[in-house]
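ugh ok fine here u go
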Amino acid sequence: MEEKLDELFHLKERGTTVKTELLAGITTFVTAAYILAVNPGSVEKAGVINP
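structure:
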């Protein structure tokens, strides 16, 4: 499986691994989910959006 992903995305040429890319993807997803959950409350408290 890793070999096919490496062929498709040229991971070794770019100096990365499947594990690194999966961890980066999960980290990005969790960060975006956190921002979407917290940002509206922060913006409202700042007075940018009227309740």
